[in-house]
Design goal:
Layout (H helix, E strand, L loop, with lengths): L2 H6 L2 H9 L17 E2 L10 H17 L3 H4 L7 H13 L6 E3 L3 H13 L17 E5 L4 H13 L4 H4 E4 L9 H10 L3 E7 L11 H10 L3 E5 L23 E4 L14 E4 L44 H17 L1 H22 L5 E2 L12 E4 L3 H10 L2 E2 L1 E3 L3 E4 L8 H16 L15
Parallel strand pairs: 1-11, 3-4, 3-5, 5-6, 6-7
Antiparallel strand pairs: 2-8, 7-8, 9-10, 10-13, 12-13
Helix pairs in contact: 2-14, 3-11, 5-11, 6-7, 9-10, 11-12, 12-14
C-alpha cells in the first residue's frame, strides 16, 4: 500500500468523512448498543427515539381512550394502515391510495400473488379456467419465503408448482442478469406474473425494476417485486416503472430493516391503481370499504384502494413505531439517504480491497446502479469469521455458503465504524482467531 493509500484508508480519513457527513446528526436519534459496531441493519434496524415516541403515544392512547381510540386518537386507529401508507408512498414512488401498511411480508405475497393469479386464464377463478395454467417467473437466488408462498398459491388452485414456478438461473451464484429474465419471457408464452426482488438478499445486487417491468408488460405479464431489502435505503418509483411510466403492478416489503420499525413491525404493500377493482385473494374485514365496514354485512365490499389488501385488524403496537421511524427518513430525504448509503458501501468495498487479503472477495456489484444497501464479503470460512466478529462486538450476519453480510445503514453508521469493522476482520483472520470456532451449526445467523 502506498503512502497515499495509507492516508486515504486511515482512521483519520474516516473521521474526516464523518465530519463532512450532512446526515451525521441522525445517529443521535438511535439506540446504538454500547461497545458494538452494528452492521446488521439489513436484518433489523436499530430503535430510533421517534419510533419509541409514537409507540408510547399509542400506548398512552390505549390507556386513556381505550376503545374510543379507533375514532378519537390522533391519527385515529381505524384508518391507521392507510395513514402509514400515505407516509410511505413518497419513499416508493406511488400515490397514497396505492400503499398500505398491513399484514406480514409473507402474507402479503400470498394475497397479492393469489389475487393476480385469479385474474389470469388457466386458474379456477380466472377468465378462462380451461386454458393452460399460467407460470410465475422468479429466480434461483430468491429469499425462500417468496417461493414457499407462490408454491402454496399454485397448490390451492390445483396447479403443479414444479411445472409452473419457473426460476431464472444465476450465471455466477451471486447475481441475476436482467437479460436472462427477458430471454425467459421470450422463450415461454405462459408467464403471467414476474415476481423478483428489488435487491437480492445474499449478494446485495440491486435489480433494474424499470427494465423488468417493461419486459414483463411487453410479454403480457404482470410485474411484482419484493422490496424488503431496499425500501428505506433506495428510492423507488414503483408507480412510474416500466416503459411509458405505466408502473409496476404490485410490491411488498417489510418495515423492520431500513425503515427501523422494530422486530416484527407490520409490513407494507403497493398495488397500482389500475388493479384496485380486483378482489383480494385473502379477504378479511379490515380490507372492507371503510364506509360500510361496520354494517357487518356477510358479503365482502372491498375498498377501492390498496387498503383492500388488509386482512385483519391493524396491529397498532406493531405499526405505531413505523410512523416515528419513517419521520426521520422523510426529514433526511430518501435521495440523501441513498447518497450516504452508496458512500458507505463504496468505502467498505475499498477497505476490503485494500486491507484484507486475497482470501476475501466482494460478491456485491460495484456499480451504483446495481448495488443495494449491504455488502456481501465472501470468505471460505465466512461463518466462523462472522462468529468471531460477533464476539468482538461487530454485529454482522452470515448467509450460506460463504457470505458475511455487512450493512452500514446510513441513518446511524459512521465511516469510522466501517473502518474499525474492517480492521477487526483483518485482525481476526491474521491471528487465525476464527479457527477457534466450530463450523456452522443451527440457529439464527
Amino acid at each position: 500500500m502506498s503512502d497515499t493509500d495509507t492516508a486515504r484508508y486511515s482512521l483519520a480519513d474516516a473521521r474526516e468523512r464523518d465530519d463532512a457527513d450532512p446526515l451525521a446528526a441522525y445517529r443521535d436519534h438511535f439506540a446504538v448498543p454500547d461497545g458494538e459496531r452494528y452492521m446488521d441493519g439489513n436484518s433489523l434496524g436499530l430503535a430510533p427515539d421517534t419510533a419509541v415516541a409514537t409507540l408510547e403515544r399509542v400506548t398512552d392512547e390505549w390507556k386513556e381512550l381505550a376503545i374510543r381510540g379507533w375514532e378519537a386518537a390522533d391519527p385515529d386507529w381505524f384508518h391507521y394502515g392507510e395513514h402509514l401508507g400515505d407516509l410511505l408512498a413518497p419513499l416508493v414512488g406511488a400515490d397514497g391510495d396505492e400503499v398500505v401498511v398491513a399484514n406480514s411480508t409473507t402474507v402479503n405475497i400470498h394475497t397479492l400473488i393469489g389475487t393476480f393469479l385469479d385474474t389470469l386464464p388457466g386458474t379456477p377463478a380466472g377468465p378462462d379456467p380451461s386454458a393452460d395454467p399460467p407460470a410465475v417467473l422468479v429466480n434461483d437466488l430468491d429469499f425462500p419465503t417468496d417461493h414457499y408462498a407462490i408454491r402454496a398459491q399454485f397448490r390451492q388452485r390445483g396447479i403443479d408448482p414444479d411445472e409452473q414456478l419457473v426460476a431464472v438461473e444465476s450465471r455466477d451464484g451471486r447475481t441475476v442478469d436482467e437479460a436472462d429474465i427477458e430471454a425467459t419471457l421470450a422463450e415461454r408464452d405462459d408467464v403471467g406474473i414476474v415476481f423478483m426482488p428489488s435487491v437480492l438478499y445474499r449478494s446485495g445486487q440491486l435489480l433494474d425494476i424499470d427494465r423488468i417491468t417493461a419486459a414483463a408488460h411487453e410479454h403480457g405479464a404482470l410485474a411484482g417485486f419484493d422490496c424488503a431489502h431496499s425500501v428505506g435505503a433506495v428510492p423507488h418509483a414503483l408507480g412510474d416503472a416500466g416503459a411509458d411510466d405505466e408502473g409496476a403492478d404490485f410490491a411488498v416489503w417489510c418495515s423492520y430493516k431500513y425503515l427501523n420499525g422494530g422486530p416484527g413491525a407490520t409490513a407494507g404493500l403497493y398495488v397500482h391503481e389500475r388493479h384496485h377493482d380486483a378482489t383480494p385473494a385473502l379477504a378479511g374485514w379490515w380490507g372492507n370499504d371503510k364506509t360500510t365496514q361496520f354494517e357487518m354485512r356477510h358479503t365482502y365490499d372491498h375498498a377501492g384502494t390498496a387498503g383492500a389488501w388488509q386482512i385483519g385488524t391493524v396491529p397498532m403496537l406493531s405499526s405505531a413505531p413505523i410512523e416515528g421511524a419513517t419521520e426521520l427518513i422523510r426529514e433526511a430525504g430518501i435521495d440523501r439517504v441513498r447518497e450516504k448509503s452508496l458512500a458507505l458501501t463504496d468505502y467498505l468495498i475499498a477497505l476490503v480491497d485494500e486491507r484484507l487479503g486475497d482470501a476475501f472477495s466482494v460478491g456485491t456489484p460495484r456499480e451504483h446502479a446495481r448495488r443495494g444497501g449491504h455488502v456481501a464479503i465472501e470468505h471460505p470460512e465466512g461463518y466462523r469469521v462472522s462468529e468471531a466478529l460477533r464476539d468482538r462486538g461487530v454485529i454482522v450476519d452470515f448467509r450460506p455458503p460463504n457470505v458475511v453480510r455487512v450493512c452500514p445503514a446510513p441513518m446511524y453508521t459512521r465511516f469510522e465504524d466501517v473502518f474499525r469493522v474492517v480492521e477487526t476482520i483483518r485482525e481476526v483472520v491474521e491471528s487465525d482467531a476464527h479457527l477457534e470456532y466450530d463450523p456452522r451449526g443451527g440457529g439464527v445467523t
